[in-house]
Amino acid sequence: MIFYELFLRSFYDSNGDGIGDFKGLEEKLDYFKELGVDTIWLLPIMKSPAFHGYTISSFYETNPVYGELKDLKSALRKGHEMGLKFVLDLPINHVAVNSEWFQKALEDKEPYKNWFTWANEKTNLSEKRHWGDDYIWHEIGDKYFYGLFGPGSPDLNFENKELWEEMKKVFKFWLDAGFDGFRLDAAKHIFDYDAKKMVFKYQHDKNINFWKEMLDYVYSVKEDAIIVSEVWDDQKIVEKYEGVFDIGFNFPLSGDMKDSIKKEDTKKFVKSLKNNFSKYIDKENDVETKSGNFLTNHDMQRLISEYEENEDKTKFAYSILFTLPGKPFIFYGEELGLRGELVSVNYTEDSQEPFQWYEIGFGPGQTEWKGYKFNPPYSKVSYEHQKNDSNSMFNHIKSLISFRKENNWIDDASISIISQNESIVKIKINKDSHSIIAIYNFKSSKSLLNVNKNKIIKCYGI
Ligand code: ACG
Question: Glycosyl hydrolase family 13 catalytic domain: which residues (predicted)?
């Protein structure tokens, strides 16, 4: 199973308004087949005032700029016929300020007013969240509400059991629409405010209890639902959620892997394999929550920008990614080496520029919802330019995907570290009668994945 994280707005525009849409998705499903990925993680597509869709104004409606529910269903149906699966990003921790739920709550209407958390005279209104420098209480009219992700997105108060039932309806609605599973946004945040002590505080046990009930319900509707969770934290916290979800993003590994390649030093990578990937080391069949392996996502800067446009490092990083057990994820456009730098995790437009179909920057289906800041026309990041160039990023990633599909046993393999020094790491990847030796050279001068017949892979670095 190879995941492709897709931002619909930037993908393919069927009606000429410059914004990617469901019909465009349907028209371009063959692109995923060509690349070789098989499971599409769609970033939020519900009604939302925000470009990214993470603040939802109605959980039961599609964003009209993307099209109608019937268009979405049609795209999913056709995708299924082609052997693709679809996972929906579902941010349920909060809603949009302009949502009917919050607007009714502001008018003190039942039951909505209890669906949010309001400050009282004892609340510390200057409390900030533990990362970054943002306040968590926001003024509106004569009230203050709790909104961890900013003034545009009041948190839902899941102390209220009615909301649990409401969320089950939301899950069912989107499963019925044809989704095969969910990417659970902000999974550690459902309970992160301690109402008794009146402070921000993660309550992981309560989160786990909540997710277990939700997932029991999801599996009762769709037995083989695919569940991916986002718990962005260090290993100690991630481990608490082991076994709750099918797949969990491995944020620590991602960071360490990128850093090692950047610094041309294996130390962090090896440390991370031992600490954050330990469930795969020298063990078999011991993994409950599979490691979701990725290098970048929509909250991060693009990989090639992280490496100051060094294409060899970028290719090398993907070579490693596709040899590791677990489930590989690729963020749309990485296969073309799209660029994008982020000034802040609160402003992510710059890593989500339009997917470039044509070298001249426009043509049928090309999205143009925002101007190019990092990927101007003629910068050789288009599909058109890369598809026939055997050395392109596109063809590198395509061959890695094809390698991984031929060796899909790697998903559930275990690894042993055979040797390591500051330049080279040698590992054995093992499952039943299969085995491969991978040699990663962090200081070499070429970048390629070399698989030879006797099952030794050499990934050269920079
Ligand atoms: C998800 C989505 C994101 C979305 C939201 C809200 C959540 O992917 O696009 O924002 O719906 C935190 C949350 C994540 C969240 C990111 C953006 N991502 O936990 O759920 O913020 C620290 C914190 C993390 C934090 C991370 C962000 O612990 O909680 O993620 O920083 O930088 C080491 C440490 C690790 C530390 C990292 C980084 O690895 O171990 O703990 O993580 O270093 O320092 C969207 C928009 C937002 C908008 C919102 C409403 O993008 O702009 O405000 O929607």
Answer: 5-404
